[in-house]
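Retry 2 of 3 after timeout on previous attempt. Resubmitting structure tokens to design endpoint.
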């Protein structure tokens, strides 16, 4: 199920009580750093399945089961994920590699491992003296090839400003001869600010998120569906942290408060 909104078809906000419950626990001040990785894994498993169901190509297959040895007709015949299509997962190191690693491990259970790749982009925020985000810096990254006709996933847990996603897509666009089959930014939580930036600055990218955070919007805006007043919606505080958010998820995942 998806939440209705006014941002157009490239934004997908899952509307599932189980996933929302995981995200609520993730942001709770009572949740310890030891619990956070398990919650992140559970949330990303659900997000990945939703995206693969919606955006990964499928094919018809006829596959034997354990019953085939005793019952010749015991074949599964029907749809499966296309085993010839590549899946490339971009790990944004700043946010911790757990979201991308989770997607990689799950994808290798569903697709031929040789067609699943995980890259590492070391993207970090650039800030001014007041702590405001001014850009995204890239250094010391590992990219294993092009994304020609592949499905490209960017599992960035907090879609705060949108700068990281736009920069990551630019990197792949620069050395790929053909466009990817699909580009998906995969967020646990996403803000209006990030949404507008990605939709305007990266036209090939879709956004999928577990929750749309706009907690600093005026009360009358919060009473309307997301995207009714996009220019009045706000989910970032003055130092670009998400509200309600989870309180520095990259730091929580690593217990390194830098």
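Retry 2 succeeded. Sequence:
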């Amino acid at each position: 199920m998806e939440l209705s909104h006014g941002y157009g078809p490239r934004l997908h906000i899952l509307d599932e009580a189980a996933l929302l419950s995981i995200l609520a626990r993730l942001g709770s001040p009572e949740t310890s750093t030891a619990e956070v990785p398990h919650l992140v894994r559970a949330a990303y498993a659900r997000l990945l399945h939703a995206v693969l169901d919606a955006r990964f190509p499928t094919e018809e297959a006829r596959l034997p089961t354990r019953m085939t040895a005793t019952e010749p007709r015991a074949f599964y015949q029907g749809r499966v994920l296309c085993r010839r299509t590549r899946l490339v997962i971009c790990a944004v190191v700043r946010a911790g590699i757990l979201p991308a690693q989770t997607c990689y491990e799950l994808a290798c259970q569903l697709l031929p491992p040789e067609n699943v790749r995980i890259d590492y982009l070391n993207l970090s925020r650039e800030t001014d003296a007041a702590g405001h985000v001014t850009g995204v810096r890239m250094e010391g990254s590992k990219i294993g090839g092009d994304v020609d006709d592949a499905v490209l996933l960017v599992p960035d847990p907090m879609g705060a400003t949108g700068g990281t996603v736009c920069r990551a897509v630019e990197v792949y666009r620069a050395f790929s001869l053909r466009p990817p089959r699909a580009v998906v930014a995969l967020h646990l939580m996403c803000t209006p600010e990030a949404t507008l930036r990605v939709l305007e600055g990266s036209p090939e990218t879709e956004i999928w998120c577990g929750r749309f955070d706009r907690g600093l919007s005026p009360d009358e805006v919060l009473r309307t569906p997301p995207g009714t007043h996009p220019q009045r919606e706000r989910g970032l505080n003055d130092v670009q942290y998400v509200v309600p958010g989870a309180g520095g998820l990259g730091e929580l995942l690593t217990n390194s408060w830098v």
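Attempt log closed. Residues 122 and 140 are 6 Å apart (CA to CA).
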